[in-house]
Amino acid sequence: MEKDIVEIARIVEGLRWHALEDDEVVGRGDALRRPDGRVFLGIDAWRDEVFGLLAATMLSDLPGTVYTLVDEDDQEARARWRGAGFVVCRQERVYRVPTDPEITGLGRVPAPPGVTILPMGQAEEEPLRELDRVVRAEVDATVGWQSMPAEMRTRPDGTLGVIDPSAYVVAVQDGEYIGQTRVAVLPRRSRLGLVAVRTAHRRRGLARAMLAEMLGSLHRSGITSVSAEVDDLNKAAITLFESIGAQRVGGAMEMLHL
């Protein structure tokens, strides 16, 4: 019996594709354009040949570099994306970070001399934007901004989008913002999205002091843990999180197709 031909149809909205076999949907593909301008692909298909057809069509329709995220334990998915021409560009660890100071050991962490830690909601928007610009430039000059969590919410020009000061804890010295942590409070699991300190102020305990304030505040509000992603090559961040009782619960590979 002759096998039905699979056809790929792009949905009118523009960033969704369906694989059709005898007018029945046998696979779906989606493209998500993130706030930083990068496009991430996702494909849901049981059969390898359907996955391949969807991937080939989506890559043909979307010019330029595109990305995907794959669970580190999903060897089948990784093999499929490799077959479509994707390569691993970075790997990150996913941690569950407790907020209870009895577990983290951050119950009493004083700020360094001359530094004030602003609790969530007390930072001002414009100094936060300037700190983001400076930190971004410093990271780009060293390990590169691609080493930051894959979900960083930035515009295509590299600047922050909407800023909610209630999500930030900030370190201030002599009126200048020198460090920040950011959290997204979500229904299922809150996410620690950023811990950053100006290069000249590192190794002073600022990250621990900011985390002590943020995690303690979350604990008092009833949140018992947050998730955090750390680049697999960022040994300093890995050491910091594991020193406060964070448990690795998984990992993800970011893959790209040029």
Describe the structure.
- One of its GO terms (cellular component) is ribosome.
- By secondary structure, the protein is α+β, with helices and mostly antiparallel strands.
- The protein contains 6 helices and 12 strands.
- The strands form 2 sheets. Strands 5-12-6-11-10-9-8-7 form an 8-stranded mixed β-sheet. Strands 1-2-3-4 form a 4-stranded antiparallel β-sheet, covered by helices on one side.
- A hairpin with a 2-residue loop joins strand 2 and strand 3.
- It starts with 5 loop residues before the first strand and ends with a strand.
Helix and strand layout, with pairings?
Layout: E1 6-10, E2 16-21, E3 24-33, E4 39-45, H1 48-61, E5 66-71, H2 75-83, E6 87-98, H3 101-104, E7 115-118, H4 125-140, E8 168-173, E9 176-184, E10 190-197, H5 206-220, E11 225-231, H6 235-243, E12 247-257
GO molecular function: acyltransferase activity, transferring groups other than amino-acyl groups
Domain N-acetyltransferase: 115-258
Protein name: Ribosomal protein S18 acetylase RimI-like enzyme
| Beta-strand percent range | 35-45%
Helix proportion: 25-40%
Q: Roughly what is the average pLDDT, rounded to an integer?
A: 88
Q: Tell me the total number of β-strands.
A: 12
The multimeric state of the shown protein is: single chain
Distance between the termini: 39 Å
Question: Which CATH-level-2 architecture of the largest domain?
Answer: 3-Layer(aba) Sandwich
Helix and strand run: EEEEHEHEHEHEEEHEHE
Shape type? elongated
User: What is the CATH first-level class name of the largest domain?
Assistant: Alpha Beta
Return the domain count: 2
